[in-house]
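Before relying on records like the one below, remember that each one covers exactly one chain. Contacts with other chains, cofactors or solvent are not represented anywhere in the record.
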Amino acid sequence: MHNFANVPDLAAMKRLPQPFRMIAVVQAMSTVKRFCLVPCHVNQSIGDHTGRSVMLAFLVAEEFGLSMEETLDLAKRMAFHDSHETITSDIPYPVKHMTSDLAEAISDAESDVEGVIFEGYQMPFRGCPILPKSRFLSCVVDMLDLVLFCANELAMHNIHHMEILRKGLKVLETYNEGYERIYQFNMFNQVNTVSAIYHMASDLLQKVDNALI
């Protein structure tokens, strides 16, 4: 009998055969706290974020006219995109990218973990065949849930999330510029989930900034 209820490190994960590595990840997702470096009013697990991201993925896929293949690829990416965090724990995107060296080191570590977790499976992680649009939108959806969560925390007067939210909005703006350049579609100028969350969070951040002046 394999004990996959608690896999504390990569060495323990490597000792598990498949499919028990994947089962261990599914088990651990609900127990690993997201935003572990930042005080939160509402505790969010990696599993919570994953579920929200999959739901957002289906909304975005329909609004942006993705094919069925692209939609399923996007949903699959969101279902497994943070699997490595069951070993590495969560580090918010803006923190990961404080410097290029830090971002590269963390990315390498995450790739190593994903290689172990997904061994034997055709999962959407670095190096696998990709569908360009669904891959691009997986980054958008991931950041979208970060912005949504941080905006909710800020609405509850948790100013610890202000700068993470600000950086998250900047990342969404960069993604929008890239998406418009490639696909001739401005996400913020349409009525859709991306623009609704972006404008809501931007307005909230502006109000808080004005109140603190």
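Residues 132-155 form the longest helix (24 residues).
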